[in-house]
Amino acid sequence: MIAKELKGYEKIETYDNEAMSVMAENYRSIIANVGEDIYREGILKTPERAAKAMLYLTHGYGLDPLSILKSALFTENHKQMIVVKDIEVYSMCEHHMLPFFGKAHIAYIPNGKIVGLSKLPRIVDAFSRRMQVQERLTDEIKNCIQEALNPLGVAVVIEAQHMCMCMRGIQKQNSVTTTSSFTGAFEKDKTRKEFISLVSNKLS
Q1: What is the pairing mode between strands 99-109 and 82-93?
Q2: Which residues contact 34 (CB under 8 A, 6 or more apart)?
Q3: 11-39: pLDDT as tens digits
Q4: How many CB atoms lie within 10 A of CB 149?
Q5: Between vectors from CA 145 to CA 80 and to CA 186, what angle results, nearest 5°?
Q6: Which residues contact 100 (CB under 8 A, 6 or more apart)?
Q7: Residue 172 has pLDDT above 90, yes or no
Q8: Active site (catalytic) residues
Q9: Is CB count within 10 Å lower at the N or C end of the chain?
Q10: Cα separations in angstroms, 180 against 21, 36, 130, 139
């Protein structure tokens, strides 16, 4: 069934072989230094797998979020709030190189231009697939939308769990960090409350 549905489609992953080779050797050294046998069957190919994983988790460095947005701009006279919520976020804490993950909620009020809806999750990925802090990630998404669309306002809220807090250090497994960033109309209390209400409530 799946093969039939995906007929004519092939997913191809490409990697920088030179970078992957260097990273794999570094991972091999790290694995050996934590006391593991790098020649054990289950570990033998782990350095290459880890290198590929890291290159994928940080592939946002090779993407241009602004170009992504500008590739799908459309003239439209819509003047009401557009909200895309519950966008999955996966990123890498730049302080400990451990994941943080959660959801992003984005809204903007058009000013003559709208953007294809799929482009908003794409720029979330483009910025999050880098070494990040949540605060900067929130601002980068907001600034990119503001620059590309020049809307009447942009709102971005991210809720995330950080493995550097859950797995090490303070070890608070249920803690969630929320960051927000607003421009224009969303700096007004009434508009901001409408956005938070739409994000918080399930629409029937």
Answers
A1: antiparallel
A2: none
A3: 777 788 899 999 999 999 999 999 999 99
A4: 20
A5: 50
A6: 89, 91, 92, 93, 132, 134, 160, 161, 162, 163, 164, 177
A7: no
A8: 93-96, 134, 162, 164
A9: C
A10: 39, 42, 19, 8
Residues 142, 182: contact at Cβ < 8 Å?
Answer: yes
Give the position of tokens 């694995």: 31
Rounded distance between C-alpha atoms, residue 130 and residue 133, angstroms: 9
β-bridge pairing 177-184 and 82-93: unpaired
Tens-place pLDDT, residues 109-157: 999 999 999 999 999 999 999 999 999 999 999 999 999 999 999 999 9
Q: Which residues contact 68 (CB under 8 A, 6 or more apart)?
A: 119, 122, 123, 126
CA 19 to chain CA mean position, Å = 23
CA distances in angstroms from 150 to 3, 12, 111, 115, listed in the order given:
43, 35, 7, 11
Written as six digits, the tokens of 115 are 């953007």
